[in-house]
Amino acid sequence: MRQGGEWQWNAISFDLPPCIKGRILATPIQLYGVKRDTMNWKASKDREFTVASAYNLARPEEEHSSGFKGSWIWKIDTLPRICHFLWLCHHNSVPVRDVIVSRGIECEAVCPLCNSDAETIIHVLRDCPFAAAFWRKIVFNESQIGTGYD
């Protein structure tokens, strides 16, 4: 109900709450052209919304300027859950203490198992003495399958 560039609130048979009126007033209106009203997404060149454009908008500038270099992950011939875990590792999204601290949550960044280094993804998977002992045990057990040393 716009006329002459102003909203005609009295043309409505009921009173709108001020918060609704504020949202209506804040909605951009196309003033020129003959095109119907459409939604435009400013974060993409073609003004169409995509998940990728929203993701790029949410990430800091320096991260998305270089482009994604992990497309190889989805080409690996393995279980999808392994590909997903690798993708999480590549995006530094596995919730180890170092990642949690970098996101502003207060906690000790030191590995609670060995208390010697920061708990990073690579530390949890390879460098922690407890992780190394775990991997050695798995390798030893697999090499003993079928030999009677179980």
Describe the structure.
The chain is mainly alpha-helical and 150 residues long. The chain folds into 2 domains: 2-63, no CATH class; 71-143, no CATH class. It contains 7 helices and 2 strands; from the N terminus they run ββααααααα. The protein has a two-stranded antiparallel sheet. The model has no long low-confidence stretch (mean pLDDT 78).
Quick structural summary:
The protein is mainly alpha-helical.
Proportion of beta-strand residues: under 5%
Shape: elongated
- The order of strands across the largest sheet is 1-2
What is the average per-residue confidence, as pLDDT, rounded to a whole number?
78
Can you tell me the number of structural domains? 2
SSE order in H/E notation?
Answer: EEHHHHHHH
| Radius of gyration, taken over Cα atoms and rounded to an integer in Å | 28 Å
Biggest sheet details: 2 strands, antiparallel
pLDDT < 50 stretches: none
Structural class: mainly alpha
Terminus-to-terminus distance:
81 Å
> What percentage of residues falls in helices of 4 or more residues?
40-55%
